[in-house]
Amino acid sequence: MHRFLADNRDELIARCRAKMALRRLSAAQNEELDLGLTLFLEQLIKTLKVERTSEPQRSRKVSGMPGGGKPALSEISESAALHGRQLLLHGFTADEAVHDYGDLCQAISDLAVERGESIDANEFRTLNRCLDNAIASAITEFGYQRDSAISEKAATALNEKLGYFAHELRNQLCTATLALSVIRQGDVGLNGATGHVLDAALVGLSHLIDRSLAEVRMAAGMPAQHRLLPLAGLVEEVRLSASLQAQAAGCSFAASDVDMRLAVDVDRDLLLSAIGNLLQNAFKFSHENSQISLNAYAVADRILIDVEDGCGGLPEGSAESMFLPFVQKGADRSGLGLGLSIARHGIEANGGVLSVRNLPGSGCIFTIDLPRHTADT
């Protein structure tokens, strides 16, 4: 069989190339498969030659042990592992990584039949052993490299997120510390502009922590802790902090009166975090002297909570992308770009929907849509 393979090496590779062409692989992918198959074919021929000598067991150094044993170093396993690594770099999937070895096996079988070449049982077992070890080594290395790349990407994203979080936390804390230092000197009072700066920094710290805790809960897959809560009480809870944010941002804020009979069955912390993120976003991007409003009301069997800002309107086609993590659409790049993403996940965890409606030339309205309930009386 080794003579048959050596004599028909070019024909076998050509048949494999034809199968690659049917899969419409790129030039770089074709080149990598060519290299991998050519090297494997040489090692298969070498294995078959050694098995016809007086020391056939030496072929194990080339092709490895039969399947089922512990992994052992061999020429095929080493080159197949490198092949698996390169397949990942060239954009193959795990399934595609197996096809090239299968193509060669099929080409050998078809050509042997066409040329009337008989393959005895021992040589066929050797072929299968070589294919088995090569595929196993290639896929093992392919999986290891893929998992390593995924882990590295996740670690990089986490480090970036932690870095941004620490930076934002430090900025807010520094602002609060400086404001408090000036107030302690006795030259200004708590009710002046410096006091407002301190209030805004503390509110910012509170929102940052609440937002981060909400994200941790959702990322950990913790179940929402639903309770029936009066809608009016929730709106009143965010009214004070929103008023402080409005002063710091140079905007005005108004919240509508809420029907005392309306209620929502929600996780309180996740809903308040979502509303807080929407309001923080509104104050951050609205023009100076704009009015930000919070309106909560019922329509049929739904509770709607609107946060309207004065950002001037959204760029065309940006409505959905602004909910993606780390996306920041405005000129103000402070923060993590996570607020709207966290808000949407928090609302969805409560069985609701968060959407945005553009008001060209004016602003936009973010709407939280939740099932309607009636407050206990």
TrEMBL record:
Q: Which PANTHER family match?
A: HYBRID SIGNAL TRANSDUCTION HISTIDINE KINASE C (PTHR43547:SF2), TWO-COMPONENT HISTIDINE KINASE (PTHR43547)
Coiled coil regions, renumbered to chain: none
- In Swiss-Prot or TrEMBL terms, this protein is called histidine kinase
Q: Signal peptide location in the record?
A: none
Query: Which top EC class is named for this enzyme in its record?
Result: transferase
Q: Which reaction does it catalyse?
A: ATP + protein L-histidine = ADP + protein N-phospho-L-histidine
Provide the Histidine kinase domain boundaries.
Answer: 164-374
One GO MF term, please?
phosphorelay sensor kinase activity
